[in-house]
Amino acid sequence: MRDRDEILRRTEAFVREGMHGEGTGHDWWHVDRVRRMALRLAREAGADPYVTELAALLHDVADHKFHGGDESAGPRAARAWLGECGADAATVDHVSGIVAALSYKGAGVPTPMASTEGAVVQDADRLDAIGAIGIARTFAYGGSRGRPLHDPGAAPELHDSFDRYKASAGPTINHFHEKLLLLRDRMNTPAARRIAEDRHRFMQEFLDRFHREWDGADDPA
Ligand code: ADP
Ligand code: NI
To answer: 138 alpha carbon to ligand 1 midpoint, in Å?
Structure first.
């Protein structure tokens, strides 16, 4: 078994290389923010920092959104990589289990996490989906898929299955109602709930302004 610091260092280099310059908000800097936030939440929640950091680093390798909807690609890639690094079997199982369970799957689909390490990585990933950065990432992703910003005639859908959620192709504003505004109440840890509260408020302000400007109803005079 290799030294833990060495495994972390090699994993960081592997992920950084693979996600560099990605244009939909799933780039290396997303992973880096999730890693830093997850480690911060881990301290408060008492999660193991090694498993937390590995899972944060590997959480978006081979994400279903970029692998034809294949949910098993991510955990498989994490497992293969950690095996190649010589990580111990318990760590490989734990990290790939977290990667498998992490993703948001629709408004009506529960996404339980079995460990504190999983809980803080999921919270960190979800915190990066909301607030100012969340707004920026969402429009970047929508643009990458050729989605309109907004369509007043297209109502948001509260998806009750992962397949339905994955198939949705609505305008980007709908994603706020289908996911982003629901995340505050789905945080696992108290620290994440605190941070989410503030980011949530900012998104609501943004949406209020967006709709006022859309309607031409924002004349400050
Ligand atoms: P998850 O694994 O929970 O889906 P990710 O870290 O992969 O989380 O990032 C998902 C992010 O990608 C969303 O928060 C959003 O910014 C963007 N995204 C995903 N689906 C859509 C969509 N239909 N419209 C706009 N943005 C989207
Ligand atoms: Ni992510």
So the answer is: 6
